[in-house]
Amino acid sequence: MRSLLRYLEKPRWENQSRWRRALWQLMGNTGLTGVHALPLHRSWVEFTYHPMVMAGLPSSFAGMKVVQISDLHYSPVVWETYLYQYIEWINELRPAVVVATGDLFMGGRRYAHRVARLLAELKPTHGTLAIMGNHDYGLDGKAITRRGARRAEFLENAMEQQGIVMLRNESWKMVDPATRQHLTFVGLDDDWAGWMRPDIAFAGVSPTDPVVCLVHNPANVTRLLEYPWQWMLTGHTHGRQIATSRIGQRLYPHKYRHFTHGLYTINGRHLYVNRGLSYGQRHRDWCRPEVTIFELTPATAEPVARRAS
After folding, report:
1. How far is CA 256 from the centre of its chain?
2. Contact criterion met (CB below 8 Å) for 124 and 95
3. What are the structural domains, with CATH classification, of the chain?
4. Number of other residues whose CB lies within 10 A of the CB of residue 278
5. Are 184 and 171 in contact (CB under 8 A)?
6. Burial class of residue 130, CB neighbours in 10 A (0-12, 13-18, 19+)
7. Number of neighbours of residue 204 by Cβ within 10 angstroms
8. Collapsing DSSP states into helix, strand and coil, what is residue 3?
9. pLDDT score, position 309
């Protein structure tokens, strides 16, 4: 028993490949890959730290933290007891801004209110921002329907009632009250649902501004290179690749993901793909739930990044 408790407190990741694959395979075969009901020990969650190096960043912002979470999927199979632990851990970090990059809920409308109340418990010094993901429009997320549009509007209203800034093709500025200098966040609506409008979102954004772009799906990065952002924060993938078999690559070559997780450098700009907190068929690629902490840094050095092929 003591050995088991020690293992749960300090898991040995190199020894997990066989049993974790078997566990996730079993859950996948029984339709339970999305179940997240109980709290986790903190050591089972991956907190990743990166310097967010930006040109034009006000010096007064140096050292402040931007924390990213993604893909909460609050629903009948993802419970508050599981999600609330992250709120407490993030508040301990004392962030300036928290961003939630889509797929916030998947249940009925009551879960829109629940996820809004959950995110309202975050205590950043400047604000909590959120964007839409494909599942925020419905389980399918691809069809442009009136029902999906009403669902998204319901979520937006629930968020705004709790003081959360919902960015739907809009920009928001984190302002230094002493100097009036700012850091701009541009939040895009979901592309799969057909509502992403970058021309509207970036209207009025100066090319000289330090800009962080929030978009749910990293596959949109190449088409958004024409717009003036330095960092792009995304989610959606749950850290896993799809269409990996020979048959899958032949039948569904368009589904192959070029950006699955972590930090990439693309034409001198930086894309980060967060693995998310919930859901995901993780039996193929073990992906621990992730909270990403970015430390705002004036452009004096480049961060270490995996280059996209």
Report:
1. 20
2. yes
3. 36-307 (3.60.21.10)
4. 23
5. yes
6. buried
7. 9
8. helix
9. 34
Name the pLDDT band for 139 (thresholds 50, 70, 90).
confident
Mean pLDDT, the chain, integer? 84
Average pLDDT for residues 200-220, to the nearest whole number? Answer: 95
Q: How far apart are the first and last CA of the chain?
A: 47
Alpha-carbon distance of 239 to 273, in angstroms, equals: 8
Instruction: Record the tokens describing residue 304, joined without a space.
Output: 């270490």
What CA–CA distances, in Å, run from 141 to 103, 219, 242? 10, 16, 18
Total residue length of the chain: 309
Does the pLDDT value for residue 125 go beyond 60? Answer: yes
- CA gap 86, 95 in Å, rounded: 13
Residue 118 amino acid letter: L
Q: Is residue 183 helix, strand or coil?
A: strand
Tokens coding 2: 């003591």
Return the structure tokens found at 159: 């968020």
Q: Which among 177, 183, 280, 186 has a CA at the least distance from the CA of 224?
A: 186
Pairing of strands 290-298, 65-69: antiparallel
Of 62-71, 91-100, 206-215, 275-284, the range with the lowest mean pLDDT is 275-284
- Strand 46-54 versus strand 65-69 pairing type: unpaired
pLDDT tier for residue 45 given thresholds of 50, 70 and 90: confident
What mean pLDDT do residues 11-16 have?
59
- Cα 72 from Cα 56, distance rounded (Å): 32
Q: Which one-letter DSSP state was computed for residue 189?
A: P
